[in-house]
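[job 0412] stage=complex_fold ligand=adenosine monophosphate status=START
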Amino acid sequence: MSSVKVEEFYAAIRDVPDFPSPGILFRDITPLLLQPRLFHAAVDRMAGPLGGQPVDTILAIESRGFIFGAPMALHLEAGLVPARKVGKLPWKTRRMEYALEYGTDAIEVHLDAIKPGERVLIVDDLIATGGTLLAATQAVEEAKGEVVGISVLIELADLSGRKRLPDGIPLWTVLSYPRE
Ligand code: AMP
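[job 0412] stage=complex_fold status=DONE, emitting structure tokens
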């Protein structure tokens, strides 16, 4: 898998202007998912920076975080915890709200999903403003887990989401826009 070049990943991301609303340039990962060699390499690269550190739990963000989080959990022999939109989880939940440009949104995690002291890796496809990942780190911290890192495939560096995340939690990314 190491033979995959970063340009191949970029070539497999489709840019869709004005989706889901005017002015948004959507970075569509579905062409990458059609190519198992690239999908596999992306998962390996997202797990790589851990460098063999043990992880108890992958907290994967709905919904594209599930696509990468599930194979990473198998690869790392970690449990998989879905962080979902409000009202989707059937059991008791912890809800974390976060600010959007206008208004708020929230994610929920099952109350018993993360145990105190567990080492948690948070996974999503993309960081934009960082609000979703900030809420996810807060959910882990409330459960008294330890966030060992956050791994995403794509960073939209212009939006400075990285700066919103707590100091001391590493953010690992594979691709960054705008391209250097
Ligand atoms: P944010 O909370 O602003 O960091 O937004 C991150 C979430 O929104 C991720 O789950 C992404 O899947 C999604 N997202 C935000 N902006 C984009 C974009 N330009 N292209 C694709 N997904 C996006």
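The chain has a mean pLDDT of 96.
[job 0412] exit 0
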